[in-house]
Amino acid sequence: MKNRKTFFLILLSLILVLSACTSTQTEENTSENNTEEEAASPAGSIILATTTSTQDTGLLDYLLPLFTEETNIEVKTIAVGSGKAIQMARDGEADVLLVHAKPDELKLVEEGFATERRDVMYNDFILVGPADGKLQKGNDILAALKEINDNKLNFVSRGDDSGTHKKELSLWKLIDVEPTGEWYIETGSGMGDTLKVADEKRAYTIADRGTYLSLKDTLDLDIIVEGDENLFNQYGVLPVNPEKFETINYEGAVKFMEWITREDIQQLIGEYGIEEYGQALFIPNYK
Predict the structure, then answer these.
(1) What pLDDT digit, counting tens, does each position of 49-100 carry?
(2) What digits encode the pLDDT tens for the residues 142-169?
(3) Residue 206 sits in the same domain as residue 246
(4) Which of 192, 211, 231 is the last residue of a domain?
(5) Bridging pattern class, strands 155-157 and 184-186
(6) Assigned domain for 278 exists
(7) Range of the domain at 179
């Protein structure tokens, strides 16, 4: 009887030990699974308001997955004209901007809607159009625009308050011309769509080089004017000021700014397009 009682006590002890081990293992597995799930889940997200050229060229598709992989921050991109992107910052509808309208960007910082601004990269604007001899190729954009106006050659404008549109209007202003008439066509659209309209209308337009190169094979438009210092096209990054809007993910915005201006990412920007187009679409220039 005594031996039987001892046997049951030993058996009960074994059951309790096994139960405790199983419970501990389950807790460890649960903890590991939770850790893995936390690592796999996004560490928040940011809204990036940017110009259409960064999207039309494929640059964002090239860069943003790398940012998300490294930081675990998802990027929700809204590609509009720079003017609309800057207005989104004023309205608290974006966390960070990547745009190309430097005077307006500096004003945004001055007014306190952005905390700072950094140069990221540049390319240049070009005048493209039909190679029919009506307009001679060269490097003087003001002379070319004067000839377009004098001869009422078809010209397509983005007409969307974008950085490209702002640049175009500033060039007309330099020659004291306010373009109007049937020859002057406004699309109210992005760069890619505007290039397609210019192609259809056999018209001239001002485009950023990157977008033109990315669509060149689908267009019957040549570069008519390039290399003029008036056609420089600088891009900047700006985090929106969280003191203006409580909803801003400022930490994520600053991480993006620091990431895109980091030396290794700047190198990636400088390499983008070389293999496919024979030249870089953007030149990094953060200092």
Answers:
(1) 999 999 999 999 999 999 999 999 999 999 998 999 999 999 999 999 999 9
(2) 999 999 999 999 999 999 999 999 999 9
(3) no
(4) 231
(5) parallel
(6) yes
(7) 123-231
Total tally of structural domains belonging to the chain:
2
The reply to whether 36 falls in a domain is no
- H, E, C per residue of the chain: CHHHHHHHHHHHHHHHHHHHHHHHHHHHHHHHHHHHHHHHCCCCEEEEEECHHHHHCCHHHHHHHHHHHHHCCEEEEEECCHHHHHHHHHCCCCCEEEECCHHHHHHHHHCCCECCCEEEEEEEEEEEECCCCCCCCECCHHHHHHHHHHHCCCEEECCCCCHHHHHHHHHHHHCCCCCCCCCEEECCCCHHHHHHHHHHHCCEEEEEHHHHHHHHHHCCCEEEECCCHHHEEEEEEEEECCCCCCCCCHHHHHHHHHHHCCHHHHHHHHHCCHHHHCCCCCEECCC
Neighbours of 144 (CB within 10 A): 23
Query: Is the CB of residue 126 less than 8 Å from the CB of residue 216?
Result: no
Query: Beta-carbon neighbour count of residue 171 at 10 Å?
Result: 20
How crowded is residue 236: how many other Cβ atoms within 10 Å of its Cβ?
A: 26
Cβ atoms of 110 and 118 within 8 Å: the answer is no
Q: Which residue has the tokens 């997955």?
A: 65
Q: Which residues contact 234 (CB under 8 A, 6 or more apart)?
A: 100, 102, 119, 122, 285
* Nearest alpha carbon to residue 64 among 40, 45, 86: 45
| Whole-model pTM over 0.85 | no
CB atoms within 10 A of CB 98: 26
pLDDT tens, position by position, 237-267: 999 999 999 999 999 999 999 999 999 999 9
